Amino acid sequence: MTRDMNESKTGRLRGHSVAIDNRSRAVFTGVTDVDSFNEEEVILATEAGVITLFGQGLHISHLNLDQGQLIVEGEIDAMDYTQQSPKKRGPFGWLLK
Predict the structure, then answer these.
(1) For 57-70, how does the pLDDT look when each residue is reduced to its tens digit (9 = 90+)?
(2) Which helix (H) or strand (E) holds 93?
(3) Residues 60, 33: contact at Cβ < 8 Å?
(4) pLDDT per position as a tens digit, 19-54
(5) CA–CA gap between residue 42 and residue 58 (Å, rounded)
(6) Which of 2, 39, 51, 69 is deepest in the core (most CB within 10 A)?
(7) Is 22 left (phi over 0), alpha (psi -120 to 50) or beta?
(8) How many other CB atoms are there within 10 angstroms of residue 93's CB atom?
């Protein structure tokens, strides 16, 4: 039986944390990948799902995937969790929903 890649040897999800300072800096731990980013949106994968950070003037000031650390700075408006990675689709991806 294969184990889900998000589970540790104990069968539990490994932790991650999010700290947002004054809506201008977000510090993440437990980051496994950064799927995409621009000045208005950062999509990152963590041990417990995908997080999308929304804002303006966003930029990645620190990224270390070996240690699972990410720091994003800019004007943070919202944050959203999802369970699965966003599917990268072509220009007609909306037809396949």
Answers:
(1) 999 999 999 999 99
(2) none
(3) no
(4) 999 999 999 999 999 999 999 999 999 988 999 999
(5) 8
(6) 51
(7) left
(8) 10
CB 43 within 8 A of CB 37: yes
Please give the radius of gyration of the chain, using alpha carbons only, rounded to the nearest integer: 15
Question: Which amino acid is present at 57?
Answer: G
Neighbours of 60 (CB within 10 A): 14
Is residue 56 pLDDT above 80, yes or no? yes
**96 φψ region: left (φ > 0), alpha (ψ -120 to 50), beta (else):** alpha
Identity of residue 53:
L
Tell me whether residue 41 is exposed, middle or buried, using C-beta atoms within 10 angstroms of its C-beta: 0 to 12, 13 to 18, 19 or more: middle
